[in-house]
Amino acid sequence: MPQVTVGVSLKTYFGHERARTFFTDVAQRAAAHPAVVSGDVRLFIIPTYLQIPAALDAFAGTPVLVGAQDVSQFGPGAYTGEVTAAELAEVGVAVAEIGHAERRRLFDETDTVAAAKAAAALTHGIAPVLCVGEASRVDPVDAATATVAQLAADLTGAPAGPVIVAYEPVWAIGTGRTATAAQADEAQAFIRARIGAKDAGVAERLPILYGGSVKAANAAELFAMPNVDGALVGGASIVVEEFASICRYRDHVTAGS
Ligand code: PGA
């Protein structure tokens, strides 16, 4: 597993031209970033569906992966407005966010739908980034208990395959209220332990990212935690320098030590 995985969801922050500029900038920085080149830091960028081909072009020949913010639970057919896992895989999409809190809240996405999407993604070789987390601020163990149940529901019936977990307390997304590094670590240790009770190997290899108001100011502290394998970043990534700074987390660790 890489030391740290940093995923970026651009949500719908950018129009097409701004997204292109962002991809070019990130591709240049990634090519010059020793930790990205060595695989120590793994990056994935998740733009809108319409921006995916431009992202794939910009990141061709770099180690940066391109993802989708969603995927259809259905296969090809009469499903107006959907984008299938088969098509995403065909163009080279590597990961797909599934069950993000905004989709659950605004689009009534249920665990059953998330499970169907996870199965579709895995069937086509796309790694689901399963977004799970508690709705309100509670004790880390209670939070993790609810999260583990959600995770199990979201993987019901899915074939085996590489999965990335994004532990994202709903109350922390886009609010500026981040779980402390200790809270995130405690919750994520619990998630890993519960998965490890079923399959130690899977738990060991499973990247568990923290998401929810991650920014340069808190990334180093989060990444120093043994059970935080990286971050899923939203709002902070709009400013490319802030995003680059998150990826230079080791510099901050060194500077702060
Ligand atoms: P945020 O979003 O960084 O803006 O809180 C995170 C996410 O939605 O994954």
Architecture blueprint of SSEs:
Elements: E1 4-9, H1 16-31, H2 34-38, E2 41-46, H3 52-59, E3 65-68, H4 85-91, E4 95-98, H5 101-106, H6 111-123, E5 127-132, H7 140-154, E6 164-167, H8 181-198, H9 200-205, E7 208-211, H10 216-223, E8 230-233, H11 240-247, H12 249-256
2-phosphoglycolic acid binds near residues 9, 173, 174, 213 and 235.
Give the low-pLDDT segments: none
Helix content: 40-55%
Q: What characteristic shape results from the CA principal axes? A: globular
Number of strands: 8
Please give the radius of gyration in angstroms.
17 Å
Bound molecules: 2-phosphoglycolic acid
Could you give the order of the helices and strands? EHHEHEHEHHEHEHHEHEHH
- Please report the distance between the alpha carbons of the first and last residues: 25 Å
Number of distinct helices: 12
Structural class: alpha/beta
Kindly report the spatial arrangement of strands forming the biggest sheet. Answer: 1-2-3-4-5-6-7-8
Largest sheet composition? 8 strands, parallel, barrel
Would you give an account of this structure?
This protein has 257 residues and is an alpha/beta fold. It has helices at residues 16-31, 34-38, 52-59, 85-91, 101-106, 111-123, 140-154, 181-198, 200-205, 216-223, 240-247, 249-256, and strands spanning 4-9, 41-46, 65-68, 95-98, 127-132, 164-167, 208-211, 230-233. The protein is 46% helix and 15% strand. Strands 1-2-3-4-5-6-7-8 form an eight-stranded parallel β-barrel, surrounded by six helices. The mean pLDDT is 92. The structure holds 2-phosphoglycolic acid (PGA). 2-phosphoglycolic acid (PGA) binds at residues 9, 168, 173-174, 211-214, 232-236. 2-phosphoglycolic acid binds at residues 9, 168, 173-174, 211-214, 232-236.
